[in-house]
Give the backbone structure.
Amino acid sequence: MSDDARRLLPMPEDWHRALAVVAHPDDMEYGCSGAIARWTDEGREVVYLLATRGEAGIDDMPPEEAEVVREREQTASAHVVGVERVEFLDYPDGVVEYGLDLRRDIAAAIRRHRPELVVITNHRENWPGGGLNMADHRHVGQATLDAVRDAGNRWVFQDLRSEGLHPWQGVRWVAVAASPMSTHAVDITATFERAVESLHRHRAYLEGLGQTEDDARRFLREYAEACGRRFGGVLATEFELIAL
């Protein structure tokens, strides 16, 4: 395939509110937060919704301690890129199952925040390059795709209406970060340093992985450069854009 045929398109800009739905603390920071920072700088509103508190993510830290640390780190990380509201659903880290409860909780958040854009991380079986994706990412991503339609159907999860959460059919796109089928991208040259800082705020998690701040910076730089090679040579974050 020619380079021109593989080029990524600019993301749509005619929207104001976004909801990012991911499985764990740090999921947004591994490559996507530079785009979030650009969007909030442009005056757009972004809310984070996390299925878990990441309590199973640090091998040498008990889950009851890790969930407190990781919630604190995620909240601080989100603030770096202009996200003031971070919500947690408290599903168990590492064993999130696709199901109606998860779909309902995500649909409720969509109705509550009324986004035009929903952002998820890769829900497919593999990462770009072929590495195997994990179950939490796949299940939360697929549940979110289904919840977008659930949120707009008054006859699905009818109890939400009694809670004042009326149908919302205003989601226009789902943007899938780190997808092997990316189609669009965002120039993050001006916000790259904040993306790095947002990942650095996950200090306990990085230490648990045996990674340094330099390792984190190198990872994000290499990823942004790889995305940018299909987007005019800038630093970029890429997405698979699903229009609804």
Observations:
- Residues 1-5 have pLDDT under 50 and may be disordered.
- The chain has one domain: 3-243.
- Residues 3-243 form a domain with the Rossmann fold fold (CATH 3.40.50.10320).
